[in-house]
Design goal:
The chain contains 6 helices and 5 strands. By secondary structure, it is of the alpha+beta class. The protein is flat, with a radius of gyration of 19 Å. Strand 4 and strand 5 form a beta hairpin. It has a 5-stranded mixed beta sheet.
Length: about 190
C-alpha cells in the first residue's frame, strides 16, 4: 500500500514537471520491496539484531524506487520538486552525479520519511534513486560484472568501467546540449 502511495506521489511530481516543460522527463519508474533475505544480509553487514522492528528502523531502502530520466537537469528538477512538495520529509541526499563514487557510479539518492503506523516510530524510510538512461545503462552492466566476479573484478576491468563511466557522463552532456539546441531551433521556427 505504501509502495503504491509513494509511486502515485512520484508520478504526480513527474506530471507536474511535464506540465512545466512540455516534455515527458522520465523514461520509466521502477519500484521494489527488499526481500527478507536482503534485509537479513543488510542487518548482518551492519551487525544489527535480525528482527522486523530493527529492519524498519535501520534500513532506508526496504522500499526503493528508481526514476530514469532523459537528461541530468530532469534529475535535479525532480529533486527540487520533492523538497518543495512537502508531502514527505527528505531526510538524506547523496549527489553521486556531482561527486561520483570512485568506481564511476553516478546517480542521485534521496531518502524520504513516510508515515507508517505499524513501525515503532510511526514512520519508515524509503529510498529514491534518480539517474539518466545512460547512467542506468552503466550501473546495470557494472552490477552484472561485479556480480560475476563476486565483487573482485580484475583491476583492468575496474579501470575500464571507470573510463566507461566518464564516457557516459560525456554522452549525457552532449545529449543535453543537443536537446537544448533542438529546442532553441524549434522555438525559432515557431516564431
Amino acid at each position: 500500500e505504501l509502495e503504491q502511495e509513494v509511486l502515485g506521489w512520484l508520478s504526480e511530481l513527474v506530471d507536474g514537471l511535464y506540465d512545466r516543460q512540455g516534455e515527458r522527463p522520465v523514461e520509466h519508474i521502477r519500484s521494489r520491496i527488499k526481500s527478507a533475505d536482503g534485509m537479513r544480509e543488510k542487518l548482518a553487514r551492519k551487525d544489527l539484531p535480525q528482527d522486523a522492528e530493527t529492519a524498519v528502523g535501520a534500513i532506508s531502502d526496504i522500499i526503493g524506487f528508481r526514476l530514469v530520466t532523459h537528461f541530468v537537469g530532469d534529475v535535479y528538477e525532480l529533486v527540487k520538486s520533492m523538497k518543495a512538495d512537502g508531502r514527505y520529509f527528505v531526510v538524506k541526499e547523496k549527489d553521486y552525479i556531482a561527486s561520483p563514487k570512485p568506481n564511476g557510479y553516478r546517480s542521485y539518492h534521496v531518502i524520504i520519511e513516510c508515515p507508517f503506523p505499524p513501525a515503532a516510530k510511526g514512520t519508515i524510510r524509503v529510498e529514491i534513486q534518480l539517474r539518466t538512461i545512460a547512467m542506468d545503462f552503466w550501473a546495470s552492466l557494472e552490477h552484472k560484472i561485479n556480480y560475476k566476479f563476486e565483487g573482485n573484478a580484475p583491476q583492468h576491468i575496474k579501470t575500464e568501467l571507470v573510463e566507461c563511466a566518464r564516457m557516459v557522463s560525456d554522452l549525457d552532456a552532449r545529449m543535453l546540449s543537443l536537446n537544448e539546441e533542438i529546442l532553441s531551433l524549434s522555438g525559432e521556427t515557431e516564431d
